[in-house]
Write a structure and sequence with these properties.
The structure holds two protein chains of two kinds. Chain A has nine helices and no strands. Chain A is mostly helical. Chain A is globular, with a radius of gyration of 17 Å. At the A-B interface, helix 1, helix 2, helix 5, helix 6 and helix 8 of A face helix 1, helix 2, helix 3, strand 6 and strand 8 of B.
Chain lengths: 174, 375
């Protein structure tokens, strides 16, 4: 049991940074990202014995993170997500360390206008750099669904953040 | 790595380290023991309370805008308008939707993309004194980015390179004719009255001195590793980039004042973000003025007289100076609140923008283009 727990601690030590970054991109909010990661860690800890003996903890925790993100948002009303769109979190802009803050905020604002699934597809494809097949695996959906969600996301960005849409098209589609 | 990767990575750097392994282990043990005594219903409640307890300790940062008062004799000499009237941009027969993306300093020329609801049939549109043209730029999914007062426009499309990968290509459009700009993976952001164009080539900041010129790669100031965007070129040849880069007309890179991120440049005025709010910088004096928290600093446009058009924190559009502001209301009351602004004329009295509208059925998202005339 102790070995199992140490194995989990080591896995989390190595993977928590990347998981945290994905959670932040998915939610755009530190509190929500904290909830998302903690929920995934609890599920991971619950299955660690089995996963450590021959499963793929990496694939499992990624699946949990994306699935929980999409399903948590599904439970909210459409109205609530519309209200959230207007509230862009403030960021300090002082100093060189905050370089690029405006474009980051533009991305954050654009991501907030996508549905959770569209947002998840963008993070998988353009941040994690996964193929459509691997993105489909992580989301538990078909490749066709990944393609269509990417296309819907692109359609929104063309209206709301055309500069980001151009950057997306550099890599994707057709 | 593409530029979108770069921006996403840059955003991801704002993430903290979330989660607590020991708490997760404790929760998992608790769940196991609860399962053992077959009281499964309360398990998720216990987990949820742990999670809430964790996030409750994070303080919210206050917005502390250090607003500077406008100078007694403001350089804005013109009378600030009293009202702006919105109208939908006329579209060719058969189209209900379209997104305006660029306009010229006089407000005579505008350009954008028509949206018939089918991605394969989206096409560019150009308005010249209200007359609609339907040009055919090279490449896939072309988008206009800027126009000068002679009606010369620039934009970017995607094309397949020799390896079959989709890459961007930049072009120039004047008198109905397209010319592809030189340079690999080129993107054009802006053009000034002299026809000097700025953008990026292979993700590096670039300037084309004229439409036929080889791109000139601009050097970055010390301490800036990656350029995220080149936003604009002024009439004296100064060029604006993110992060906080201002190139002098001779191409020498400099920095904007610490704490100010620039977004748009016009006649020595720069709009942008400072102290977490919309702000403007007067390059003649070096003075940064906060727009009293009226505007968020995410996107903004500036006229030649220093008026800033942007989005307020609730997502509505505004025209603002440090002391005045005016709502840019949608033409119909039931129009959705979110969208973006595309251009502002030199006199600050013609502003173009787009409202996004959800399709009632399905995942569609349509653009309604609007022009405000202010007087």
């Amino acid at each position: 049991m102790l070995d199992d727990d140490d194995g989990l601690r080591e896995f989390v030590r190595l993977r928590l940074g990347p998981l945290s970054r994905v959670a932040y991109l998915l939610t755009g909010d530190h509190h929500a990202a904290e909830d998302l990661v903690q929920g995934a860690l609890v599920k991971l800890a619950g299955r660690w014995g089995k996963l450590a003996r021959g499963g793929s903890p990496e694939a499992y925790v990624r699946k949990v993170l994306y699935h929980d993100h999409v399903s948590a948002w599904r439970r909210r009303t459409r109205r609530a997500s519309e209200v959230a769109m207007g509230e862009v979190p403030d960021r300090a802009t002082e100093g060189d360390e905050a370089a690029g803050v405006v474009l980051r905020l533009a991305l954050l604002q654009a991501l907030a206008k996508l549905t959770p699934k569209q947002r998840a597809v963008l993070v998988l494809r353009f941040f994690e750099d996964l193929s459509e097949l691997d993105a489909a695996e992580a989301l538990g959906c078909s490749v066709g669904n990944v393609k269509s969600q990417t296309s819907y996301a692109l359609r929104r960005l063309r209206v709301l953040a055309p500069e980001l849409a151009v950057l997306m098209e550099e890599k994707t589609l057709i | 790595m593409t530029r979108l990767n770069l921006i996403m990575n840059s955003l991801a750097e704002e993430a903290k380290q979330y989660g607590d392994t020991e708490r997760a282990l404790a929760s998992a043990r608790r769940r196991r023991s609860l399962r053992r005594v077959a009281v499964s219903a309360s398990a998720t409640v216990a987990v949820a309370s742990v999670v809430l307890g964790l996030s409750a300790g994070l303080p919210d940062t206050e917005v502390t805008a250090t607003a500077s008062k406008p100078p007694p004799s403001s350089p804005v000499a013109e009378q600030f308008p009293g009202a702006c009237v919105a109208a939908r941009l006329p579209l060719p027969a058969g189209y209900r939707y379209g997104a305006v993306s660029a306009g010229d300093p006089t407000g005579r020329f505008m350009a954008g993309q028509l949206d018939p609801g089918d991605d394969s049939r989206r096409r560019p549109v150009f308005w010249a004194d209200g007359r609609i043209q339907l040009p055919s730029p090279p490449g896939l999914d072309p988008g206009f980015t800027d126009i000068n007062s002679r009606g010369a426009a620039v934009g970017t499309s995607t094309v397949r390179d020799t390896k079959g990968q989709l890459v961007t290509t930049a072009w120039y459009f004047h008198n109905g004719k397209f010319t592809t700009l030189k340079g690999e993976r080129a993107a054009a952001s802006a053009i000034n009255e002299q026809g000097v164009i700025v953008g990026t080539v292979n993700m590096a900041p670039a300037r084309w001195r004229d439409v036929g010129a080889e791109p000139e790669i601009l050097s970055l100031p010390p301490g800036v590793a990656d350029l995220l965007e080149v936003h604009g070129i002024d009439e004296d040849g100064s060029m604006l980039g993110i992060p906080r880069v201002l190139w002098h007309p001779d191409g020498t890179p400099g920095r904007l004042p610490a704490g100010f991120a620039g977004l748009d440049i016009r006649h020595r005025w720069v709009s942008g973000s400072a102290s977490r709010s919309g702000a403007r910088l007067d390059l003649r004096t070096g003075r940064v003025e906060i727009l009293d928290g009226q505007l968020q600093g995410v996107s903004s446009l500036i006229s030649a007289n220093g008026w800033v058009a942007g989005q307020a924190k609730d997502g509505t559009f505004r025209l603002a100076t440090p002391s005045r502001h005016l709502d840019l209301a949608p033409p119909d009351r039931d129009m959705p609140a979110h969208g973006r602004l595309a251009f502002i004329s030199d006199d600050g009295r013609t502003i173009g923008g787009v409202f996004g509208e959800e399709e009632k059925a399905g995942d569609g998202y349509r653009a309604i283009s609007v022009v405000w005339r202010c007087s």
